[in-house]
């Protein structure tokens, strides 16, 4: 009986494919909307470092809303303004050094998305945040892929993952999902909305939005160091000591006063 293997993900796109997508009207419009949605949540990150993993956009385009001291892009395709290039499954970054990780459509074009999520969790600090931008498999691009109507401008080799499946993976990594935001530039033509908002007619088409932004944070149990219990000190009530307290302080001062030295022989 063969050992169970996790399902394989997509394959990395090439530089010409990314240039063609970002040069198309649909690609630029969607990138602008994704930048706007990330700009809504990135200012909530407190710390020093925000890291984008994956080449999507040019340079720090998606990280412009971050207010941390340092922002970096660890890309997979050259000539797109990345700070450095690296494999997504093996990140050359020390553990617990990054305050927020942004994955803009990186899971769709990664051969082993589970390893990528584990690496992102490894480099996050104890109060780290994770932001995943992904394509909805029940959205326009997912349905086009199922019907074989692939757009010539869209990078080939993508594998889409639903929000529910992504939440299951994050649960295993002890990451808590805080918000799921759905939006898109195609059908359905609705304004960006978050899951859990009051019901409306537009919420009926929310599951079919082509893109989502998932926000998560690490679950950290507070660590309390139990030290030596100190005795409580009795303080004066409203700044005036009682007569008994004054007599006690006077007696204590006499007992603690040094005795006169004995006369020399």
TrEMBL record:
The keyword Membrane does not apply. Residues 245-265 are annotated as: Disordered. It comes from Panacagrimonas perspica. GO terms for biological process: methylation. InterPro entries: Methyltransf_11 (IPR013216), SAM-dependent_MTases_sf (IPR029063). The keyword rRNA-binding does not apply. Residues 86-132 form the Methyltransferase type domain. This is Methyltransferase family protein. Transmembrane segments: none annotated. It comes from the Bacteria. SUPFAM superfamilies: S-adenosyl-L-methionine-dependent methyltransferases (SSF53335). Keywords: Methyltransferase, Transferase. GO terms for molecular function: S-adenosylmethionine-dependent methyltransferase activity. It holds the Pfam family Methyltransf_11.
